[in-house]
Amino acid sequence: MPVESGSSAAARQAKQKRKSHSLSIRRTNSTEQDRSGLQRDMLEGQDSKLPLSLRSNLLDLFSQIEREFENLYIENLELRREIETLNDRLAAEGQTFEGADLAKGALKTKASHSTSQLSQKLKTTYKASTSKIVSSFKATTSRAVCQLVREYVGHRDGIWDLSVTRTQPVVLGTASADHTAMLWSIETGKCLLKYTGHQGSVNSIKFHPTEQMALTASGDQTAHIWRYMVQLPTPQPVTDISQTPCEDDVDFSDKDEADGEVEGPNDCPSVRVATTTLRSHQGVVIAADWLVGGKQVVTASWDRAANLYDVETSELVHSLTGHDQELTHCCTHPTQRLVVTSSRDTTFRLWDFRDPSIHSVNVFQGHTDTVTSAVFTVGDNVVSGSDDRTVKVWDLKNMRSPIATIRTDSAVNRISVSVNQKIIALPHDNRQVRLFDMSGVRLARLPRSNRQGHRRMVCCSAWCEDNTSCNLFTCGFDRQAIGWNINIPALLQEK
Fold first, then answer.
1. How many CA atoms does the CB half-sphere of 323 hold within 13 Å?
2. Are 290 and 206 in contact (CB under 8 A)?
3. Sheet of strand 327-332: strand arrangement
4. Cα–Cα nearest to 245, from 34, 5, 443, 71
5. Distance between CA atoms of 217 and 117, rounded to whole angstroms?
6. Sorting pLDDT into bands at 50, 70 and 90, what band is 183?
7. Helices (H) and strands (E) in the chain, counts
8. Helix or strand or coil: residue 9?
9. Can you say whether the dihedral through the CA atoms of 174, 180, 185, 190 is positive or negative?
10. Is the pTM of this model over 0.85?
11. Read out DSSP for 382-416?
12. 395: phi > 0 → left, psi -120 to 50 → alpha, else beta; which?
């Protein structure tokens, strides 16, 4: 019996492949012809004022779009399988790939470019040495515990901003896209008061340094100052708090449990009228803050200007212009008459009002994308965060270049720095919250899974170190604010 050579066998297999390929092409063409014929029959049977040729042309274009989308969808599924395979291999070696959330993203719009980029990133990550992976995913010990203490639920839309009062009684304030601001009991999670005076999204909330007054900025092109009086409920014992290490980041599902309608607090009293309304902006007022002493406030707007107002008279004192694009944030120094404004033009500006006769301004260009926030520390530092996925620490005495740069894997939103220990809390677009020190060393990542943590992007963070139950608060577009208890001594000891 003759034995077939290897070359002839290979040739026969190639011929069979070509034959099957041509057969599939013929089937596809015949299917498309049947589909086009069916479409023409449907067109003739429908009543429309459009010419038949134009309608046929539109259907052909929509069919092409559908085929292209189908190809992208199939390619995206294959890419997800590749990522899962890589994660399994890393998990087998005792590591986890922090970019696993990429497998849950939306479909790619530019297939070839995105595929090549992500493929290269996967290859680089997997080929990295073990020591490099270990240093990148350094875990803190069990003593450094980050506990989720309480969730504050009641808003009907995403929460942009939150702040803690600086006077007694100490309460949490939240600003939401549902046109309201709410005050909460930190210990019980109960809504104490709701402000409903704005006609647009409430984008920020700040409290007066010595009086029971709140300052809110809104999409209705105004900023409101309103007084509040609240009575704290009796604290209840905290139950069902799990001791979760900071690096616990298991995510078993990508379900958004907050998509359903949230019932607002029924027995929550409301304030409907502002004590003072600040008008003069020609666009959305995105942020506002009190200057030291509480006699003046500064507002930042999408009209590319920041305004300085007198609280007692409501008069415009200064209009701070110079940014080339919309402003995103403003912040005041806790002890000096200094203001910092952030903008989409990739810069932030430092405005000095310490000398009444001279109002100096300094422009800083350390980022390559929108500066989402820049905040002062108690000392002589400014910390800026950006959509370019970096956070930079600056010295006010020498701001030519940052003294530390923190590089992350996601855009950074409104950051905050703790007063005593100067720990930076970074809220991210990818639902994570990370803690760093001023030198750029990562201390912790707050726990997030399908059972706890934020389920959508985290918009803001705020420290309250004097509170014994919750010393860090975060909020996001999952319509909730979260109170955390951070073991700061353990974090610093294990640094």
1. 31
2. yes
3. 327-332, 338-343, 348-355, 358-364
4. 443
5. 40
6. very high
7. 5, 29
8. helix
9. negative
10. no
11. EEEEETTSEEEEEETTB-SS-SEEEE-SS-B-B-E
12. beta
Question: What letter does residue 84 receive in the DSSP assignment?
Answer: H
Element (H, E) at 232: none
Among the listed residues 116, 139, 175, the one whose alpha carbon sits nearest the alpha carbon of residue 460? 175
Q: Which of 312, 308, 347, 313 is nearest to 327 (CA)?
A: 347
Length of the chain in terms of residues written? 495
Q: Which amino acid is at 101?
A: D
Asked whether 180 and 202 are in contact (CB, 8 A), the reply is: yes
Residues 254, 228 contacting (CB under 8 angstroms):
no
DSSP of 267-303, one letter per residue?
A: T--EE-S-SEEEE--SS-EEEEEEPTTSSEEEEEETT
The residue behind tokens 């099957």 is 20
Q: How far is residue 460's CA from residue 160's CA, in Å, rounded to a whole number?
A: 7
Longest Cα separation, the chain: 107
Other CB atoms within 10 A of residue 370 CB: 19
Q: Quick: pLDDT tens for 38-89.
A: 555 555 556 677 888 888 888 888 888 988 888 888 988 888 888 888 888 7
pLDDT at res. 399: 81
3-state secondary structure 93-150: CCCCCHHHHHHHCCCCCCHHHHHHHHHHHHHHHHHCCHHHHHHHCCCCCCCCEEEEEE
For the residues 173-182, what does the mean pLDDT come to? 98
- Percent of the chain as helix, strand, coil, to the nearest 5: 25, 35, 45
Which amino acid would we find at residue 382? V
First to last CA, the chain: 76
Q: What is the pLDDT of residues 419-439, one digit of tens each?
A: 998 999 999 999 999 999 999
